[in-house]
Structure formats: structure tokens, C-alpha cells
Amino acid sequence: VAKLKRFYEFSLRLENALRSLLEALTSPPYAPMQHLEREQALAKQFAEILHFTLSFDELKMTNPAIQNDFSYYRRTISRNRLNNQQLDAENEVNNEMANRMSLFYAEATPMLKTLSNATTKFVSENKTLPIEDTTDCLSTMACVCRVMLETPEYRCRFTNTDTMLFCMRVMVGVIILYDHVHPVGAFAKTSKIDMKGCIKVLKEQPSNSVEGLLNALRYTTRHLNDDSTSKQIRALLQ
Question: Transmembrane segments in this chain: where (predicted)?
């Protein structure tokens, strides 16, 4: 329970960090591509956050015991309160904190949900900043990752599979954030993300390493089932 609390609190820190990074990577007077070239360390940090987020959520999705164990803890708290008893653990995770944590872990991909909400909130709160500045930053990062994954001269520089997995997670992460904040999403024809190319790159990898990422695109995006999504893209994700 204490470990689950640490991850929940870390998600709140990630939320604040992501909004600060978005502000730094989208603010005038530079265009998104200029920002990514000028602030490469910040772009790398953004990528690291997405890499961790997708890694965490993949593990969470394959461990249903997390929610079962936490539900048992909450029932134990309630039962002890009726008997005027208190667990030592309650000093660290009281009923109010347990309620917030429960909502967090009830999500299929809790960290990604946190970042999606943070990105959406960033866009809605910064009304003077054109939404294209944010979406262009995300689509540019997706394009860079796709090119690195599909171009032989880049791929030959990857010394291990971890680097490829890093690029794939970052690519999927920015696609999902883009889909949450763009009015028509990442799958429409007008999208600045080459979704066919991105999905094709993922499908070329061993299925055991990308199934979680494909599931993230299937189940955590907002616009996949919209009328604007082509049948070809839907078929690729089936």
C-alpha cells in the first residue's frame, strides 16, 4: 500500500512536470521544431516521462492483483473503523487518500490518463496560446520517432532493443496526447501524424514487445472510433 501511494504521489509530480515542459516547448516566439532543436534536454526529459508512463501502465495492466489487494486494504480499514481499531498503515494512507488512490488505479492506464488530463488542462488554461503550438510539438515528436524507427541508417545505430522500445513508447505516448487535445484527433486525414506509418512500424516489431503499445492506441485514445477515422487504420489496429 505504501508503494502504491508513492507511485500515486509520483503521478502528481509528473503532472506538474509535464505542464512545465509543455509551457517551455510551446511558448512564443519559436515554432515547435525550433523549440525541439533549441531545448533538446527538455525534449529528452519529456520523452523520458512518456517512456516511464507507458512502461508503468504496461506493468499495471498485467497485474490485476494491484486493485484486488488495494480493495482488500480499504475493506480492512472500514471494518477496523467499525471496531474502533486502526492499522499502522492508516497513518500513511488514510481513508481520504485511499479514495483518491482507488480512483487512480481504477483506470486501465493511470499514468497515461494523468498526463492526458494534464495536457488537456494545459491547452484549456492557456487560451492565448494557439492549440496548434501544442499539437505541432507532439506531432513533430511522433514524426521524429517514426523516422528513427523506420529508416535503416538510424536503426543501425540502435545498439539494443531498449532504445527501439524507448522510441516506440515515446511515439505512442505523444500520439495519445495529441489525440486527446486535437479537436479531430490523431486518426483523421487532416492529422499531422502519419498514423499508418506509425502503426506499421509497431507491427514490424515482435508482438510480445508491442502488444501493450497497440492496446494503448486501441483503448486509451479518444477518436479512433470517430467517423473521420479510415477503415484502413481501424483494420490495422484490429
Answer: none
Q: Do the domain assignments include residue 185? A: yes
Q: How far apart are CA 194 and CA 197, in angstroms?
A: 5
DSSP readout, 44-108? HHHHHHHHHHHHHHHHHHT-THHHHHHHHHHHHHHHHHHTT---GGGGTS-HHHHHHHHHHHHSS
Dist CA 9 CA 81 (whole Å): 25
Q: Who has greater pLDDT, 207 or 25? A: 25
Domain membership flag for residue 158: yes
**94, part of any domain:** no
Residue 52 identity: F
| Cα gap 53→129, rounded to integer Å | 26
List CB contacts of 80: < 8 A, sequence separation 6 or more: 86, 87, 90
5-24 residue pLDDT tens:
999 999 999 999 999 999 98
Does pLDDT of 233 surpass 80?
Answer: yes
197 has a pLDDT exceeding 70: yes
- CA 118 from chain center: how many Å? 10
The domain tally of the chain equals 1
Residue-wise burial string across 138-171, b where 16 or more C-beta atoms lie within 10 A, e elsewhere: bbbbbbbbbebbeeeeeeeeeeeeeebbbbbbbb
Phi, psi of 116 (to 5 degrees): -60, -45
* Among 212, 188, 216, 192, CA closest to 144: 192
pLDDT in tens, 48-85: 999 999 999 999 988 888 988 888 888 888 787 767 66
